[in-house]
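A common beginner's mistake is to predict each chain separately and then try to dock the pieces by hand. The better habit, illustrated here, is to supply every component at once so that their relative placement is modeled jointly.
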Amino acid sequence: MREVWNFSAGPAQIPYEVLQKAQEEFLSYDNSGMSIVEISHRSSAFIKVMEETERKLRSLLHISDDYGVLFLQGGASLQFAMIPMNLKKIGKAAYINTGNWSVKAAEEAERVGMQVDVIASSDDKNFNYIPAWPTDFSGYDYVHITSNNTLEGTTFYEFPQTGDVPLVADMSSNILSEPLDVSQFGLIYAGAQKNLGIAGLTVVIIKKDLLKHQNQLPKMLDFNQHYEKESAYNTPPTFAIYILGLVLDWVAEQGGLERIAERNRTKAQLLYDYLDQSEMFQPTVFGKDRSIMNIPFITGDDALDKEFIQYCEQHKIATIKGHRLIGGMRASIYNAMPIEGVQALIDVMQAFEDLKGRGTN
Ligand SMILES: *Cc1c(COP(=O)(O)O)cnc(C)c1O
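With all components supplied together, the output reads:
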């Protein structure tokens, strides 16, 4: 079993069973005598991996035929620019600013010539909540949200009803964490290294009627090219796609997204309950917008935070340090973190509190 519980925000812990399976078949994929990383992306064996991976994702998220699924590179960060380039018609887009990644998404859109209207923002309170948004979206090419704010620990549990205006969501840190009604969105994108596997792959789910708006773009930046070439216009990130396939099998084996969501809520509740009663640790987000994927917390004393982080490292709790913009600690508890891992973290927090003589019990 695992030696260490890894709370990294990404690249993040991967289901242990997936790592084992990848190891088992690494030297010879499907008894071919060749590794999955050695075979051509045009081979029938790999084309099957791609097709099966797409089929599994469609099945878990109930993605209809109105949508294309693309396996791209460049991370979620390249999507910050590709989306405005491809979806540009009028040249104006609405962004809801809920954190560091939203800021970056909006900045990139401006760099490629989009007029960005920030229609709601929670920057007045260090992004510790999801702001209310206006309801008239007419005149925009799309509305952009960051569905889960990885650094700040907030989540949209309801989405803007944008009617005919496409809703675009960066779901990098919460895709597959719970069931999702994809039909509410024009486009969903996610870097794979949080809930979908390893770095190097970005999944884009795009409504087919948005594919043709490109404005003479370089082919690598054109969604329609990637769609028509079935994500193999050039060499796709083959190993990352293969790992995504294994992760999707694992999610299905866990009982699918309903069960995954139930477990994710249990995990987050355990940690929030602990934080809410702790005399030493405080959560930075309160109320209904709390993320069940990324949970930042602080002691309020930088030196004590540092000491706690070191204590964690000595007790098999890795990568608990918070993002430098938020400080303190952050527990990223994606799908691959079992309840046992969260309980281990809470035990270490309790032991540290007791050690410092400030525990409540
Ligand atoms: C991690 C993350 C990104 C950046 O992803 P890259 O793949 O490194 O470009 C963007 N948005 C969100 C919400 C993230 O969590």
